[in-house]
Amino acid sequence: MLSKLCVGLAQTASRPLEVRYLMRHASLLAHPQTHHLRLQPRLRLRLRGIVCREDHCCAGQKTVPSREEHIATLKGEEFDVLVIGGGAVGCGCAVDAACRGLKTALVEADDFASGVSSRSSKLIDGVGSYLATLLDKKDLNQLYIMVQMMNERATMLKIAPHLTRVQPMLIPSYSLLGAPLTWLALKIYDFISSASNVRASHFLSKEKTLYEFPLLKTKGLRGGIVYYDGQMDDARMCIALVMTAVCLGASVANHTELVEMVPQDGCCRVVGVKDKIADETFYIQARAVINATGSSTDFIRKMDEETTAPILLPSVGTHVTLPRYFGSSTYGLLSPSKDKKDPTIVMVPFENHTLLGLREVELDDMESPQNPPPDPEDVDCLLDAARERMAPCVELERFHVLSAWTGMRPTVSCPSGKREDEEEGDRSAVSTYMLEVSEGGLITLAGGRWSTYRVMAAHAVDLAIEICDLCDDHITTSWTDDLELDGAQGYCCMLPLELVQDYGVPMDVAQHISDSYGYNGHAVLSQAPDRKGRLHPNFPYIEAEVQYAVRNEYACTLVDIIARRLRVAFVDAAATLHMLPKILKVMVEEKEWQEEQATQELLKAQEFLVRQMGLGSIVRPKSMCPNKQETTVKATPEGCCCNIPKRKECRSFSSIGGTSVRSVASLASSFTAHPPPVSKLSALPWAFSSGITHSSVESTSSSEPQPITRKKGKTDQKQDLILKFWRKKFIF
Ligand SMILES: Cc1cc2nc3c(=O)[nH]c(=O)nc-3n(C[C@H](O)[C@H](O)[C@H](O)COP(=O)(O)OP(=O)(O)OC[C@H]3O[C@@H](n4cnc5c(N)ncnc54)[C@H](O)[C@@H]3O)c2cc1C
């Protein structure tokens, strides 16, 4: 029987290597205890890769269990490991546990990667902060961390080649002494990383530096030092992790929040979760529970042990997206801070735009773990710092910002073991990550960075196996360093060309599909042959992606699509507003939404853009700029100089809150000169572009979680003002 199956499987394999692999692992096919055919996880994933390719050859279909099927499994079965939180760390834990053969479940309160894991600087950081701490505090421990990080960077580039790439970073040098010192530090970095380093750092002359970054300040510039880091699409990476866990047999559910921990004696734990889509609460049984909830860490710890002292040291980081011409198409820019007030500036190319970060503000207290709205003051501070690094003739104003967002960094201190009321004095942050086991057996995993997710996950699952006695004959050690993520199997750099030839899509669309889905790009395009239309003329996103996200990636809401499946909300908030009707149309067909639900979804998406992406308060809707004026870059005797034409109406927008309100309103009114009745909205896609109606605004604004209270309250007031104005203006 076994040998027959093996020959059958070997015939399915498309490459000789796979045939050899299958034959060699044939003995693993039978589970020693049950004598039932039970595929070892490693083989199961391999086979799935083959099956996907075979499917593509035949019908191009790719199917995954539906969300409802996952929920049914979560309700009815007992799990070895339950992971709470679907960010980088939680999804990493689910992949790690599932790949070892543990029966794994994961629940996420909102959408996968809806926390800070979709809001990072997108760097697979090998050097930055660690090198700085090493030099600042002479902490040699940082050396060890750096080596580990560099190994991780190499691993991420290997296991997800479609979502990651080597990113050259340029550090401009303005001082005679600074250049050799930075160069020396980077050479030490090259030496330590040796095996895992992607490329050696080198010096760039002043001319070449300006060639790459024509807008840089030329006065005093000595040249630039280039080192190599990694870059990733963070949210899509998280989705790839979820889908890999699903391939390995894990049960996952987004929009399912942990609401209760039922005290139990012994190792098995029961937790209550709320399915927000079906609006029902049910219980999940698991032998080990891992708390990987990022900025909600303390809320879950308190649910487990009410008197426990908090460990989170929250801070909020702000990023903005700018047009591509403010950066370089190849190089990223890292400009260290000069003093405490001056933020370190990072500029990286992302989705054909330039991402500018990072302004970080520590929070005094945290009333809610939700990401706060971007604060115009923080954005201005970021723009000021960027402007200071650019030639005096460069005009960089708030109206250039296409999207602005914040992310809450889940930095933690070491748990003191004391109760909350006994805690005293300052807590200092742990430099890497923290693992804690509570008296009730809850494993908390917090801190770290995106790029440490795999190491953190392996560590936590090792601990879970040890303390919950999960060891079994078929449980393996972690092998995620060798596990290609979903979409990576079969991927090669020629994939865009393959997509152009097979499906007749334009090259920019093919490149985007290949970069976002890897080999699954075939499934995206073949599943929806009649949905190749663009969602916006200026972007490569197409309708087929929406269908794929709903059917294959558990997208449940309009926000899930614009923020985590397509990255357009982070790239251009105003363009996203224009895309909403088309996305909604596909979702209505796929999800069979009734008119009322469609309207609700649309308004939640619009509110997300206003509250979370700075639309209106920071980002100026496009229709306010009727005369498109491009930046011109010209050569001057001192180097290159940039001239961006001034626009008076834009300035007033950035400086006066009232003007910004008027701008948004005028955009909206341009779409709703004669608003149709609500019942006709679904038939008129353009109506959704503004789409604000009396009933929908009322209901969505009350259901959305309130922004957290920060030291500064101006943003919230301004956002509320905008919403109030919208409401007043569009009560029909
Ligand atoms: C501004 C900024 C820039 C950064 N840049 C980088 C970078 O360039 N490179 C890098 O490596 N790292 C970077 N980081 C760090 C990195 O983003 C984070 O360390 C990492 O994403 C944390 O992932 P996480 O899974 O712990 O948290 P999160 O992504 O926040 O995930 C936690 C999840 O738990 C869910 N959750 C909460 N409560 C519940 C509940 N009750 N039930 C179920 N689910 C729940 C949340 O909805 C959330 O999705 C950056 C961080 C910030 C703030």
Automatic annotation (TrEMBL):
Keyword Flavoprotein on entry: yes
Keywords, comma-separated and alphabetical: FAD, Flavoprotein, Oxidoreductase
One Pfam family in the UniProt entry: DAO_C
Region called Disordered, residue ranges: 695-715
Keyword hit for Oxidoreductase: yes
Listed InterPro entries: DAO_C, DAO_C_sf, FAD-dep_OxRdtase, FAD/NAD-bd_sf, G3P_DH_FAD-dep
GO BP, sorted A to Z: glycerol-3-phosphate metabolic process
Domain of life, per lineage: Eukaryota
Enzyme Commission number: 1.1.5.3
An example molecular function term from Gene Ontology annotations: glycerol-3-phosphate dehydrogenase (quinone) activity
Reaction equations catalysed: a quinone + sn-glycerol 3-phosphate = dihydroxyacetone phosphate + a quinol
Ranges for domain Alpha-glycerophosphate oxidase C-terminal: 479-597
Principal EC category: oxidoreductase
Domain FAD dependent oxidoreductase: 80-417
Protein name: Glycerol-3-phosphate dehydrogenase
Species in which this protein is naturally found: Drosophila ananassae
Lineage: Eukaryota, Metazoa, Ecdysozoa, Arthropoda, Hexapoda
